[in-house]
Amino acid sequence: MISMKTSPSKFIRSICFFASVWLLASSLPAQAQAFCSIRQPYAVIQSLFPDIDKPVYRSFMRDFSKESAEKLRQRHQLEFDIRELGTHDIYAVFDQKTFRGVAHSRTEQADYGLAEVIVATDENLKLKDFSFQRCRSRYRKQFESESIRSVFRGKTSVELSAMLQPEAVDRFLATYGLEPRAEPLLRAILVSSIKTLVLIESEWGEDLAPLKP
Fold first, then answer.
1. Would you say the C-alpha torsion 47, 49, 52, 54 has a positive or negative sign?
2. In this predicted structure, what is the pLDDT of residue 35?
3. What is the domain partition of the chain in residue ranges?
4. How many other CB atoms sit within 10 Å of the CB of residue 176?
5. Helix (H), strand (E) at residue 73
6. Distance CA 45, CA 58 (A)
């Protein structure tokens, strides 16, 4: 307890210190969740797998280490933020007992802060679709349009990586009438999708192998 005889300046510094500690502690769970989890799995899976009447899912958790991140950086030229390390989960999606794909959440920098992108794959682990769990970008609505989302569907990590090339980005923005300032969100979607496909193969391959057709 702070003594009543404490000087006003020390008292204020003490209050500021404890307030800072409380704010830091309270922000950690939200930050950890933002980088690895889907907050409403069933609703999200229903929206990303509309062809399944009553989807069933099963989660798999894995620890993503610094060593794994370094291997993927060297192999795929992917950069991972330190906050992306640690425990992550994926959701294997089923139509009754038939494996239909995977849903996973990634967080990347966009034009207005962080964007949480939920990526869905098909049963062959190609990109099926994506949605936003959180995104403040002014271009969100345009990227949610069917005409743009359809461009990403069915692509592999290699094909998506090709879309990250500068000339491909410029061509994409011009084709869909997007301003140059929409580029960060485009890159966030592409990088989230590439990381999802690559990570599923490298980190969850053993879990999913028995499920695939």
1. negative
2. 54
3. 8-34, 38-208
4. 15
5. helix 66-76
6. 11
